[in-house]
């Protein structure tokens, strides 16, 4: 089937408009001599490792990981950045809520990296599909897969670098990671819808489509799936201890170890990094603004009735640890300022800059008896890195909002 490329028609002989030329094949357009093209003919993929059953089996697990990661990510996002109308509706219970959902978010995100690599490897022969496009429908389908793959790779890449606190890009992490999550979710739903017949046909080893592929699951496919499962298990076991403290001893690859840090608790932003030193602390006062504003020195604050709470710090980056805190209830401090019931508050840190110098707290948190302006951690005065002289600690709250070095509370 050798046919010479059609001769170049050359410039039109007359000024009359020329009807559009019929579409020419890619081969003729590239004018590649046929023997060369034969030499780069796509490789042949025969094994079961690249068939529809393998793609479906890995895709099922990947889909589950992505679904949990997406939903827990939404929870994390809206707890941190609630739309104004929702701020007062955010629940301060269960106490361990954010610790669980953010631990799952990072664990499923890490598992998704492994599963995504296996899935891409299982389907990469389709890159050599010939002809690459069979029509408009096929082109749209391939475009949606390209969008899905690009967004998914970028999503796990930004997430992974975030948990090691490395931001080698000029764009904002939060906005990009959040927007891409919707792109991934949308293009994944589309992908599942388009592939639904194939997924159904290969859902399990005994599905009709799979039985046509091979009489039974061959050892090669089973080893691949077992290997992928073992890799996910290894990644999870060596990282999940950063949040799930019973496995802390196995936490070899997690960027943080829950026990490493002053007073047995990790630190994300140190006092030095936040520019909080002895000079800024010298005239420290707690100022409370509301209908009846007041200000307290540290001895005066320490003399107020104390409350204790066992609450975790749960960082968005995935590490978390429970600790014993003691301090003054935020609701008592607000009541003393004449705050009306159901008021929220704004918290300001002594820190000179930084995204978390000022944070806001909705009604449920402000009223919760476990929400403290903490003065002590584990029975000792707070260390400077943990927010001395006073910090916020509240239940079911992202770590970034547990403001350290607090100097001002404002009733909203
Ligand atoms: N003022 C201020 N408070 C802050 C931060 C900050 O950058 N500035 N970082 C937060 C983050 S991201 C976390 S996870 C917790 C960690 O608290 P720890 O350092 O006491 O463990 O503090 C939070 N409080
Ligand atoms: Mo954090």
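Sequence proposed for the structure above (412 residues):
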């Amino acid at each position: 089937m050798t046919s010479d490329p059609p001769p170049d028609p050359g410039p039109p002989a007359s000024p009359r408009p020329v009807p559009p030329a019929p579409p020419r094949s890619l081969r003729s357009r590239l004018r590649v001599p046929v023997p060369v093209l034969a030499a780069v003919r796509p490789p042949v993929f025969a094994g079961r490792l690249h068939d529809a059953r393998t793609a479906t089996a890995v895709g099922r697990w990947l889909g589950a990981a992505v679904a949990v990661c997406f939903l827990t990510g939404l929870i994390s996002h809206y707890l941190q950045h609630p739309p104004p109308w929702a701020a007062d509706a955010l629940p301060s219970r269960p106490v361990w809520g954010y610790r669980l959902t953010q631990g799952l978010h990072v664990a499923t995100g890490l598992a998704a990296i492994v599963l995504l690599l296996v899935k891409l490897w299982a389907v990469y022969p389709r890159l050599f599909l010939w002809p690459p496009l069979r029509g408009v429908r096929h082109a749209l389908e391939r475009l949606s897969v390209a969008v899905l793959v690009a967004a998914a790779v970028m999503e796990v890449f930004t997430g992974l670098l975030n948990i090691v606190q490395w931001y080698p890009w000029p764009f904002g992490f939060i906005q990009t990671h959040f927007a891409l999550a919707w792109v991934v979710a949308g293009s994944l739903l589309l992908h599942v819808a388009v592939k639904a017949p194939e997924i159904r046909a290969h859902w399990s080893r005994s599905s009709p489509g799979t039985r046509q592929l091979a009489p039974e699951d061959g050892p090669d496919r089973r080893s691949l799936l077992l290997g992928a499962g073992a890799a996910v298990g290894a990644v999870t076991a060596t990282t999940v201890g950063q949040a799930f403290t019973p496995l802390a001893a196995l936490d070899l690859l997690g960027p943080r170890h829950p026990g490493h840090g002053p007073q047995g608790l990790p630190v994300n932003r140190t006092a030095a990094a936040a520019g909080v030193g002895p000079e800024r602390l010298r005239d420290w006062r707690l100022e409370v603004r509301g209908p009846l504003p007041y200000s307290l020195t540290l001895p005066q604050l320490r003399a107020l009735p104390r409350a204790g709470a066992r609450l975790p710090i749960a960082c968005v980056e995935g590490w978390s640890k429970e600790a014993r805190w003691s301090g003054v209830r935020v609701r008592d401090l607000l009541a003393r300022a004449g705050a009306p019931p159901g008021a929220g508050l704004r918290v300001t840190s002594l820190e000179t800059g930084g995204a978390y110098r000022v944070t806001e707290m909705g009604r449920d948190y402000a009223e919760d008896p476990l929400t403290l302006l903490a003065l002590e951690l584990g029975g000792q005065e707070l260390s400077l890195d943990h927010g001395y002289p006073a910090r916020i600690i509240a239940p079911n709250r992202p770590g970034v909002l547990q403001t350290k070095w607090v100097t001002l509370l404002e009733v909203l």
